[in-house]
Design goal:
Layout: H1 2-11, E1 15-22, H2 26-37, E2 46-52, H3 59-70, E3 77-82, H4 89-97, E4 104-111, E5 114-116, H5 120-130, E6 134-143, E7 146-152, E8 154-158, E9 163-167, E10 173-175, E11 182-186, H6 187-193, H7 206-216, E12 220-231, H8 242-259, H9 262-286, H10 292-310
Parallel strand pairs: 1-2, 1-4, 2-3, 6-12
Antiparallel strand pairs: 4-11, 5-12, 6-7, 6-11, 8-9, 10-12
Helix pairs in contact: 2-3, 8-10, 9-10
Amino acid sequence: MADEKKLSGAEQQPVVSVIILNWNGKDDTLECLDSLRRLDYPKQRIEVIVSDNGSTDGSQAAIKEKFEQMKSEGYRKLDLIENGTNIGAPAAYNSAWEKVGEDVEYIFKLDNDVALKEDVLSVLVDRLESNPEIGVIGPRIVYYLNPGVTAHGAGFIQWWRGKPFWKDSQELIKCDFVTGCAVLIRREAIEKLGHFLDERFFVYWDDTDLCLELREIGYLTYYEPSTYVAHKVSKTTGHESPFRVYYMSRNKVLFMRKHASLVNLVLFYLVHLFWIPIYTVWRFWKYRKVPFKQLLKRNWAYLKGYLHGFLDRKGRVY
């Protein structure tokens, strides 16, 4: 009788689709899946979709083996999408979105290099269930190697600079965006918007863009600090790799062109016309211990990113 009541309660929980991107991150993805298995949310109300961007490290076989281990645990669906090549983060998540079950109410979008607190999904789902105006909610993001320290809190945009910043709030708070490594999104909001992530960004800023797009059609973004995920920050692409430097620079400009008011966009352009050359020189000094050829590649990526942003260059470059 107790088991029947437990099952009945589980069946009342909304169905959630957990979508994860993998790109040559086999060990991280397997660890992420193991942390997913420890969630206190009923497994029969969860489907898991991993979208792989042409990994060459044996990820596909390892994920399939992990799914075989998970099959007996009662998950609604376990699916691996093999994209064949690196089509970019938004496109990979979009391919997972296309596979989401018809009865799914919420999308739990994860980076593969996160470890989940056991109650994170339950807490986030309860928040969305309690307020239909919330379209996106994210937990506290802590450092994987230092879980007592917050890496990202509630996200805001300083519009005249196009600069994101975070508040380490101790209470539930409305914000401009939440960090995309772990966000719960209302399916109804995505369907009302008419699309999921904007593939023109290729990687970075696409999650921030989604929060702003949903706000423009009436949905709010909230930060929930009572639960957390641990994130291996910038592990996949490297914090100062030319790849990351380029896309962070370019996509900031693309984001501003898309969302900033005319006044803020003009201020952003004026500030950056003066700031970019100064910051480029400062970067040579800050990273002076880095081999010069490597530093030159980084700084060229930084300058090229802004130039391509101003020229409205989209999609994949690196």
